[in-house]
Design brief:
Spore Coat Polysaccharide Biosynthesis Protein SpsA, Chain A, 10 strands
Length: 347
């Protein structure tokens, strides 16, 4: 018997067309309903690019610096200590790529205030070389302002400064003893941070004037709280460190982590102000008690960094004494100038 389908092929084709059109209508209606609540991925990307960038507050900046520090090549220098017991890096040549830190700090819009004291004959002998060498090597590519403290502002030499770099001269009293000049700089630094630096600069670095830059002293040195290892003590046992061991002094220390050099210290302005305020308070208490710390402000600075660990340490490459054997020194970034203590200091 011959089989006859219930529907003709033409009818089936028309039915399929109707079904397809119906499905397409449903998709269009559904898409219009869903689209306002769930934008397409491409649209989300466009919207995200119009958002405000992440605010560069202190925590954000520190997180990015810490991320960069975590990529340091700590094993690149096997004969020296490259990290403290609390995890702070000790910056030595070959541990980092200059370009990585420079790019980071340009992105972060980092800016640096440098303080230096040139009182009495120290101005005549050291200041010009200090400033001209700083222009060649210190934080190149970043905004920098030199704050020069002196008792004779009219004698400060004129220096050609690069773009984004400036200088301010601040007159201070000349004390009768060099020890008082050394210790009272803490007061002057604290006051200029409070009145001016905090409003314009993220970082502060404090230098002695009897030094000369010889190589890059760059953005890798920037950090939350920065201390310098003393060239004469970095490779000696702790019992050789010249801490103040007078129990009557606020600088008294029986032992410590390292011996730090007061020729350089720095960090975020808040931390530098904390350093200077606490050191000044302890210096003044010692004076009221008729006590003077063994190495003056350096003794108090060592006590501060014993109680408040620095987050970054600079190796002696950042302040080297050329009279020492230099087997560990790959580059001299800053060097001690020749000392003329007998001629320059008022005893």
């Amino acid at each position: 018997m011959e089989y006859k389908p219930a529907f003709k092929y033409g009818a089936i084709s028309k039915m399929m067309i109707v079904i397809i059109i119906f499905c397409l209508l449903c998709l269009v209606i559904g898409f219009n309903i869903i689209f306002p609540r769930f934008p397409t991925p491409g649209l989300r990307i466009i919207l995200n690019t119009t958002q405000e960038p992440e605010q560069l507050n202190e925590k954000t900046i520190l997180r990015q610096i810490n991320n960069e520090d975590s990529r340091l090549k700590f094993s690149a220098r096997l004969n020296v200590q490259t990290k403290t017991s609390w995890g702070a890096p000790i910056m030595w040549e070959k541990m980092f790529d200059n370009r990585d830190y420079d790019q980071l700090h340009i992105k972060l819009k980092s800016s640096v205030a440098l303080t230096v004291f040139a009182v009495g004959r120290y101005l005549d002998v050291y200041l010009k070389n200090f400033l001209t060498s700083a222009e060649q090597h210190f934080m190149l590519g970043l905004p920098v302002k030199y704050y020069v403290f002196t008792d004779t502002p009219e004698k400060v030499p004129s220096i050609d400064l690069a773009p984004q770099r400036s200088m301010k001269v601040i007159q201070v009293e000349k004390h009768s003893r060099w020890q008082d000049i050394s210790m009272m700089r803490m007061k002057e630094i604290s006051e200029i941070i409070e009145s001016e630096i905090r409003h314009s600069f993220q970082y502060v670095f404090c230098f002695d004037v009897d030094q000369e830059f010889k190589g890059r002293f760059g953005s890798e040195a920037l950090g939350d709280s920065v201390a310098l290892l003393h060239a004469h003590y970095y490779n000696l046992p702790k019992h050789r460190f010249t801490y103040d061991r007078n129990p009557k002094s606020k600088a008294f220390m029986y032992t410590g982590d390292f011996y730090y050099h007061a020729a350089i210290f720095g960090g975020f302005w808040k931390n530098v102000k904390n350093i200077t305020d606490e050191c000044l308070e302890n210096i003044m208490e010692d004076k009221r008690n008729g006590v003077e710390a063994l190495w003056h402000d350096e003794s108090h600075l060592n006590k501060y960094f014993w109680l408040h660990k620095p987050t970054k340490l600079l190796s002696p490459e950042y302040c080297w004494d050329r009279t020492l054997p230099a087997q560990d020194i790959k580059i001299i970034r800053l060097t001690w100038a020749e000392k003329y203590y007998a001629e320059l200091r008022d005893h």
